[in-house]
Design goal:
The protein is an all-beta fold. The protein is 0% helix and 28% strand. The protein contains no helices and 3 strands. The chain has a 3-stranded antiparallel sheet, with no helix packed on it. β1 and β2 form a beta hairpin. The protein starts with a strand and ends in a 12-residue tail after the last strand.
């Protein structure tokens, strides 16, 4: 399952949350530091590894 990064708008804490792809749209994680529901998803870059060489 993918790990998504979030940032709390209240205390500015950045944290990760593991979510299934199907539940990502409806997920509303709480900040683990202050418990706030005011969190924003932070887009993160990724690199896909394949076994084929270019």
């Amino acid at each position: 399952m993918p790990t998504y990064q979030y940032r709390c708008e209240k205390c500015r804490e950045t944290f990760e949350h593991v979510e299934h792809l199907a539940e990502h749209e409806a997920a509303h994680p709480h900040c683990p530091k202050c418990g706030s529901e005011q969190v924003q998803h932070i887009p993160t870059p990724f690199v896909a590894k394949t076994s084929r060489k270019s």
